[in-house]
Amino acid sequence: MNLNVVVLLLIPPSDLRALLAFRSALHEPYLGIFNSWTGQDCCHNRYGVSCDAITHRVADINLRGESEDPIFERAHRTGYMTGRISPSICDLTSLSAVTIADWKGISGDIPECITRLSFLRTIDLIGNQISGEIPNDIGRLNRLAVLNVADNRISGSIPKSLTNLSSLMHLDLRNNLISGLIPTDFGRLTMLSRALLSGNRITGRIPESLTKIYRLADVDLSGNQLYGTIPPSLGRMSVLSALNLDGNKISGEIPQTLMTSSVMNLNLSRNLLQGKIPEGFGPRSYFTVLDLSYNNLRGPIPSSISGASFIGHLDLSHNHLCGRIPVGSPFDHLEAASFLFNDCLCGKPLRACLKN
């Protein structure tokens, strides 16, 4: 028997039916990416579809609207697709990855039934117009390592079951309409390395449990409605390198622990922070970015800041700081914009201080 015939006999007809139903719910008018979706073989030269070599079941749907693939280079454009994600995708029961990203026009909800696809490791739906809520039972996907629904119109709250995703490493919910609280047991996501929740309507406090995630390297909670104080334990996280809390309603004082932590990119701007900039900078203080602008900070710039091993970009503008700007590194390469709109700072690069 011909090998191709053998392969066709091995491919379940349910996979072909599911793919055809999935395809019929989408409209891509410019690139013709679905032109190759012909014939009875799901696994042969079907753009964006990969199959398991042993089972011949569909294992991967990878459709990106922004790509260096020749089909995009020939058209000299990025992709645009409308329609919705059909629930028929849930009949592809061997799927391990679903990437339907950056098509700009795909709308509708995330099918609830997607939580039945127990082999899923990746859900990447970034850059569409998808609405509705994150499926309530998302926590059933115990193999899921990547959940990316950024740049959509997702609403509702973060499902409580999400903290059951024990394999999750990358969580990206940026730029949606998500509201409610960050779950208090967020720290159960012990494999998480990136938590990107910016540009939503999330309220409440930063949960203390988040600081117990050992692998967490990048936390972006900016552009929400968070309040309360900054947990000092954030500064004790051993691999945290980027912390962005810009544009919230966080109050209280800046924890001293953040000045000598592993954090290199620290943005606390546009909050309600009070008190003084903490002393305690030293050789372990290494900042590519240190942005404390648009707060209610008072007092002098701490002299110990000159002891930091490196500060690339520093912004202390729009506070109530007063006194002499320290001399030497890092101040010798900073411009006036870093210090403007304070109460009474003086010295280079601002006006000279009055002599006593």
Q: What would you note in describing this structure?
A:
There is one protein chain. By secondary structure, the protein is mostly beta strands. Helices cover 7% and strands 24% of the residues. The protein contains three helices and 23 strands. Strand 2 and strand 3 form a beta hairpin. The longest helix is centred in the N-terminal third of the chain and has 12 residues, at 13-24. Mean pLDDT is 93; it is low at 1-9.
Summed up:
Residues 13-52 form the Leucine-rich repeat-containing N-terminal plant-type domain. With 356 residues, the chain is mainly β. The chain contains three helices and 23 strands.
Topology summary:
Elements: H1 3-10, H2 13-24, E1 26-27, E2 49-51, E3 58-64, H3 70-75, E4 81-84, E5 97-101, E6 104-107, E7 122-124, E8 146-148, E9 170-172, E10 179-181, E11 194-196, E12 201-204, E13 218-220, E14 225-228, E15 242-244, E16 249-252, E17 265-267, E18 272-273, E19 286-291, E20 298-299, E21 310-315, E22 320-324, E23 344-346
Parallel strand pairs: 3-5, 4-6, 5-7, 7-8, 8-9, 9-11, 10-12, 11-13, 12-14, 13-15, 14-16, 15-17, 16-18, 17-19, 19-21, 20-22, 22-23
Antiparallel strand pairs: 1-4, 2-3
